[in-house]
Amino acid sequence: MNKAKDAPADLLRGAISEMAGAGPIRQLLRLAVARETLLVPIEVVREILEVGRMTPLPQTPDFVHGVMNLRGAVVPVIDLSARFGFGPTHIGRRTAVIVVEAKGDDDFERLIAGVLVDAVYEVLDVDTHRIEPVPTLGVAIAAEFLAGMVNVRDGYAALLNLDQVLSPVALSQLIAAAQHH
Fold first, then answer.
1. Which of 7, 9, 62, 158 sits at 20 to 30 Å (Cα–Cα) from 121?
2. How would you list the strands of the sheet with 110-117, edge to edge?
3. Fold (CATH) for 25-179
4. What is the pLDDT of residues 1-24, one digit of tens each?
């Protein structure tokens, strides 16, 4: 073992130079959907709820889990697992609904929706310089739904672009297509 290399001053210099190259910190919520570890920016998260009573909507695609009453407001709940083509989420002890705010459309500036996920883990402080571009291969989720990849403890996590995942135009087209079958 090279003692000079592990000297406290060298470790400190290394940490300082690493910090100098750091970018702004972004807080990301780590969650699970099917076998995927995903991240969503904490600023779009309104609240995290246990799965409660939902009203199913007839003639909608399988990713529309239904609607829920959130303090008098009707909020659609999107099953992210089904939205990404992994099949419906099986409701378990850790399943949660994350109420998020995404970009709306011409009619509504903001879209409030619930997203059904298998589990919610923690909020991570991520250096924005550590957010990598989405690779063209090897990602189970369509690239248009992703804003980047982040190296986390146990591998890589995909940073979701919720404005794309919950795009009112895309969702309306998919719902309209389901009603014509």
1. 62
2. 45-50, 96-103, 110-117, 73-79, 64-70
3. OB fold (Dihydrolipoamide Acetyltransferase, E2P) (2.40.50)
4. 444 455 666 666 655 555 566 789
